[in-house]
Amino acid sequence: MAGPIVTAPDQALTAPATDGTPPRSGRKRILITGLKWVISLLLIGWILRSTELGAIGAALYSAVPSWVLLAAALHITGFLIAAYRWQLLLHTQGAHASIPFLMESYIVSIFFSNFLPSTIGGDAVRAYDTWRIGGSKSEAVAIIFVDRFLGLFVLMLFALAALPFTGALTAALPLLHLWVVLGVAGMAVITWAIFMPSRFFDLLTKLPLPFPRKVKQVFTAFLPFQGRRDVLLKQLWLSLLLQANVVIHYYFIARALHLDVPLYSFFFIIPLVTLLMMLPISINAIGIRESAFGFFLAAYGVTTADAVAFAWIAYGLILLQGILGGLIYALRR
Known about the structure:
It is a single chain. Helices cover 74% and strands 0% of the residues. By secondary structure, it is mainly α. It has one domain. The radius of gyration is 22 Å and the shape is globular. It has helices spanning 11-14, 24-48, 53-61, 65-92, 99-115, 122-133, 137-162, 167-170, 176-195, 198-205, 212-222, 229-256, 263-277, 288-298, 304-332.
């Protein structure tokens, strides 16, 4: 099975300079990647300043293997649910793909996200696979956007529902209630805009918008979702199952480390940590992950060493999936 196409960059942009220096685009990429590494190392140094590597190692050594294996097994469940969700969006665009193929694409995307983050992102791999199944490039990007966005929307709904039970956290962040409510409201508006009745789409195309051709291309890519409440409800239901699976996955890791954090608290913590890890300021959220879990879990009496061990087990499981994705990608070529 063919892997993602890597097109040759424009010769004028990639030809080496006559003085032996890298091309400008290459220098910029190196600079950005280097800056991300610096931020990651600074954050890691900041979180480790209040603990010792020996304490983290002891926490990792004390982890109960059965709970870690259960957490890892939930990834398989997650891939299956995510594949069904992706397949439903493809059907909306008139395209079809098997569940095994979509699960394979998900795993390969993890390889690119974690081992080649500065070249081809995981979402780009999935967008390419969506495109070669059928449809235009803009439709492929629209599918991946809707898939990712609805998953994040459901996570934020979890956070909103868990707000009344997270006094230990919200006391330290007084404005957190407001930001969560505003975030959910904004995402609800965007969701409505994607799945709104088609008559609103016709009205928008007649407005004097800037860059009308580009705007119309974007609207056209989302046109198959217009008025599809049935698709929206199924997507939200599948996203609910998928994100609950994600939260329980983290809870199992907490159980493995004997952390006394209730399950409902993770329905609030995980959405916020996920948002923070999406910030493109570090390499694979290294440093952000440890700092975020260290901050939020501290409200429940979790030590820095245990919080870092928690973050490293979670990331270690992702890296193992990335290695598997790399092997699958090698066989696709």
